[in-house]
């Protein structure tokens, strides 16, 4: 028998659809150049890019406006009174509050060495300086290095003088009161002792109790009601009850035409940028809310 040769049958696989090729151009040199097909994607990306740029510049503009308004609100507006035109009484480098006849200053070691003979000339100025408050102590163990000299010189140059204690809410009030008493010898004709409270408390109720301890202890020793010094905001926020309203109030409120505090007050510290002969550094200026005879009535008696 003749053997038949094996015949293989090849099945053709189904062809996949051929993707469209990018057209080519024949170069003169014989090579081929592929021409990219146009697509809508870059146009969309370009538009979105423009939108993101616009949003970026808008955010920058908004941020700049917020910065400008914030800078004005916190750093310019509170001190704008400094640059207002003065239509009233100008002296000691500032525009003095209208309607007050009795003026004074307060000093500490921050004013460096004071020439009290030169400073004495302000007693005969157009707006004479009558009284001086002098920093004595702070906390339970810090005595102002210039206190003894300033306190003695204020007396010898015939200013009505007073002494103040800068209160530390974190220190025992009895220790602070005793430290002030040990270092400050007041006499007839001096102003009552001053409690200066500026530091924000962690516990308001505790602060009130401690301040009352200091005030009572100092009052018993000097036999006169102490003066309470603080800003009008601090007074309204932390010390706005009837107990503290019984003390003569020395209000700190800078760069304003008038006192905004609605209660009674005796002294007003109206600026911290005053200039005085005999004092190289700027100094706090104050007015007394009353006449000269009323100021003398406030002083310690025999």
What does this structure look like?
The protein has 302 residues and is an alpha/beta fold. The chain has two domains: 48-83; 85-298, Glycosidases (TIM Barrel), CATH 3.20.20.80. Helix content is 32%, strand content 23%. It contains eight helices and 13 strands. The protein has helices at 41-76, 116-119, 147-156, 173-183, 204-222, 232-238, 242-245, 292-298, and strands at residues 24-26, 32-34, 89-91, 94-96, 102-107, 129-138, 142-143, 160-166, 194-196, 227-231, 249-252, 267-276, 279-288. The strands form three sheets. The chain has an eight-stranded mixed β-barrel, surrounded by four helices. Strands 1-2 form a two-stranded antiparallel ribbon. A two-stranded antiparallel ribbon has the order 3-4. The longest helix has 36 residues, at 41-76. The chain is globular, with a radius of gyration of 40 Å. Mean pLDDT is 85; it is low at 2-14 and 26-30.
Structure in a nutshell:
With 302 residues, the chain is α/β, with parallel strands linked by helices. The chain folds into two domains: 48-83; 85-298, Glycosidases (TIM Barrel, Alpha-Beta Barrel).
- The oligomerization state is single chain
Order of helices and strands: EEHEEEHEEHEHEHEHHEEEH
Instruction: Let me know the number of strands.
Output: 13
Kindly report the average pLDDT value. 85
What global shape is seen? Answer: globular
Question: Main sheet?
Answer: 8 strands, mixed, barrel
Task: Compute the separation of the termini in Å.
Answer: 157 Å
**What proportion of the residues form beta strands (DSSP E)?**
15-25%
**Rg computed from alpha carbons, rounded to a whole number of angstroms:** 40 Å
The CATH architecture designation of the largest domain is Alpha-Beta Barrel
CATH topology of the largest domain: TIM Barrel
Number of self-contained structural domains: 2
- Low-pLDDT parts are 2-14, 26-30
| Structural category | alpha/beta
